[in-house]
Write a structure and sequence with these properties.
The protein has 200 residues and is an alpha+beta fold. Helices cover 35% and strands 24% of the residues. The protein is elongated.
């Protein structure tokens, strides 16, 4: 029988052990950790999980607020760009001072380049926040695939994002795993980012 890896199974085993030891003091007269202490440790884990759930909910609320605000910023930018494009009609080079103008020839028929500067920040006991920067070469990224693998294992898909960050929840504890991000568009998937290794 293998020792469980899932948090739920570990806690269930701890409570079962505490119950059996308590019921049979003649068989287990002096365990290294008492049933009461074992139960208390389980309660600490549950309390931390509740705090993490609140933190995750707060994060989702803030990300939703950020998304709404960013959408308003985009609307304002589009309105201003429409105005400026009309104002400098026939002289598109004057738009360069506004930071506007795509790379010549870059289309979504070209694979996106490599995602840059991937970082991971722990958020609670089972969650990680990933942040990255968009590729500078290739076609524009339409979305990003977040992938994970255990040490030596195959890559698996865990999330799809359109922004440059992602909350990856319910990750295994005490297990070393790699994370990476791949930019995608209509042409397909670009070069994966460098990996970050996480142990929660």
């Amino acid at each position: 029988m293998e020792f469980p890896e899932r948090e739920e199974d570990i806690l269930q085993l701890a409570l079962r052990m505490a119950e059996v030891i308590e019921q049979h003091p003649d068989v287990f007269p002096a365990p290294p950790v008492s049933p009461a202490h074992l139960r208390a440790m389980v309660e600490v884990v549950k309390a931390i999980n509740a705090e993490c759930a609140l933190a995750n909910e707060r994060y989702r609320e803030q990300r939703a607020k950020q998304g709404r605000t960013l959408a308003r910023v985009k609307d304002v930018l589009k309105a201003n760009l429409m105005y400026t494009e009309m104002d400098v009609r026939g002289q598109p080079e004057r738009l360069s001072g506004l930071g506007w103008g795509g790379r010549p020839g870059a289309t979504d028929r070209e694979l996106p380049g490599e995602v840059r500067d991937l970082t991971a920040q722990r958020l609670g006991d089972t969650s990680v926040v990933l942040e990255w920067r968009s590729p500078v070469d290739g076609g524009p990224a339409a979305a990003y695939r977040v992938q994970r693998r255990k040490l030596g294992g195959p890559w698996e898909h865990v999330a799809r994002e359109v922004d440059n960050d992602c909350l990856v929840s319910h990750q295994p504890q005490g297990v070393e795993f790699d994370l990476r991000v791949v930019a995608v568009n209509q042409a397909g998937a670009g070069q994966p980012s460098a990996t970050v290794t996480v142990v929660l």
